[in-house]
Amino acid sequence: MGAPIRFSTTSDPREWNALVATSPGATGFHDWSWLQLQSEIFGWRFIPLVVSHGGTPIGVFPLLLHPGAIPRPVDPPFPFVGPLVPEEHLFDTLRAFRSWQLRHGVPIARFDLSPVMTPSDAELQRSGAEWSVDRTYVVDLAGVSPEQLVAGMNRNARRSLRDAERNAVEVRPAAPGETTTFLPRVLSESYEVRGVPSPYPDDIGARIEQWAADRDDVYIGAAVVAGETSGVIVALGSQPVVSVWAGGTLREHRSANPSTSLYHDVLRWSLDRGHTAADLVGRVDDGIARFKTALGATERSYATITSSPLPRAARTAAVSLWQRTQRRS
C-alpha cells in the first residue's frame, strides 16, 4: 500500500503559488491573490489546502465554500478551480478528500479539474465522485508566429479583422476608469442576452482595476470604435497558459466587428510574452463556441466534480436542497 495523501492548510501565499507553479494544469484562477480577491467580492470562505504524499507537498486543493454552520459549495463564475496534483495521485487525492470532508463537516464540495487533467470515467467512478463534462476552447501558441496566428483563424474571423480596421476600430490598454465603467456593463449585457442576471456585483470593474493596477501579468484591453470605447476584456497571464477570463464589447458596436480585434490583441499579447497557449474560458453556447473556434481555438473537455461522503440518498437530497438555495440566492 502506498503512502497516504494528507491535507493541511497554509497561510503563506508564496508556498501556495510555488506549488501551483509546479503543475502543468495551473491557471490564473489558482493564484492566491485571485482566490482571495474573488472570495472577498462574493463573501466566500477560501480554504487553501496543501496536498502531501508521504509527507512531501505535491500540490494544492483550493476549496471555496459559502460560510455557515453547514458550509455550502459555491458555483464560481469561472472554471478550473480544483485540485492541482500529479495525475498519478489524483485518484487517491479525490478519495482522501472525501474523508477530509467527513472530518471537517463539509457534506458537499464542488470543483473542476484543469483541462490537462484527464482521468478516465472508471477512475472517477472508483473515487466515489459524481461528475459531468464541460468544454472550453484553447488556442495553441507554441512555436506560432504572428502571421501564423492570423492564418490559423478561419476566413470569417480574418475578414472581421479587416472590417474592423476599415471601421476605425482601435485596441489599446484600458485607460484608468474604463475597466470600472465598462466591465460591469459588458458582463451584464452578456448574461442578460442568455436570460440570466450577471452574478457579479456592480463594483466588479473597480475591484478588478484596483487589483490589476500594479501587475504586469494581467491584460486589460479596450476596444475603441471611432473614438468611443466599446468594451474591455481581462486575461490572467501569471501561468504559461493565459486564462482569458471575462469581457467583450457592447452590442451597439457589433456592426464594426470590434470583438474579433479585441480577442486577437489578447492572443498577440500572450504570444509576445511567450505563453504556450491561451484558454478562451468556456463554451457558453453554440454562438460563442463558433466565435472562439473561428479564432483558431480547439475544443477541450474538463470535468466538473461533486464530492460528498454522504450515502447516495442523503447526497441526492442535499444536492437538491443546495440547488434550490442557489436559485433563490
Provide an overview of this structure.
The protein has 329 residues and is α+β, with helices and mostly antiparallel strands. Helices cover 38% and strands 26% of the residues. The protein is built from 11 helices and 12 strands. The strands form 2 sheets. Strands 5-12-6-11-10-9-8-7 form an 8-stranded mixed β-sheet, sandwiched between helices. A 4-stranded antiparallel β-sheet has the order 1-2-3-4. Strand 3 and strand 4 form a beta hairpin. Helix 7 crosses helix 8. The longest helix has 17 residues. The radius of gyration is 20 Å and the shape is globular. The relative contact order is 0.16. The mean pLDDT is 92.
Features:
329 residues; alpha+beta; 26% strand; eight-stranded mixed β-sheet; four-stranded antiparallel β-sheet; 11 helices; globular
Total helices: the number is 11
Major sheet strand order: 5-12-6-11-10-9-8-7
Helix coverage percent: 25-40%
Rounded Rg: 20 Å
| Multimer state | single chain
Could you state the order of secondary-structure elements as H and E? EHHEEEHEHEHHEHHEEEHEHEH
| Structure summary, number of beta strands | 12
Distance between the first and last residues' Cα: 45 Å
Give a quick summary of the entry.
The protein is α+β, with helices and mostly antiparallel strands and 329 residues long. The protein is built from eleven helices and twelve strands. An eight-stranded mixed beta sheet has the order 5-12-6-11-10-9-8-7, with helices on both faces.
Task: Summarize the helices and strands and which ones pair or pack.
Blueprint: E1 5-9, H1 13-21, H2 32-42, E2 45-53, E3 56-66, E4 72-73, H3 90-104, E5 109-112, H4 121-126, E6 130-140, H5 146-151, H6 155-166, E7 169-173, H7 178-193, H8 204-212, E8 218-225, E9 228-236, E10 241-249, H9 258-272, E11 277-279, H10 286-294, E12 298-307, H11 312-328
Parallel strand pairs: 10-11
Antiparallel strand pairs: 1-2, 2-3, 3-4, 5-12, 6-11, 6-12, 7-8, 8-9, 9-10
Helix pairs in contact: 7-8
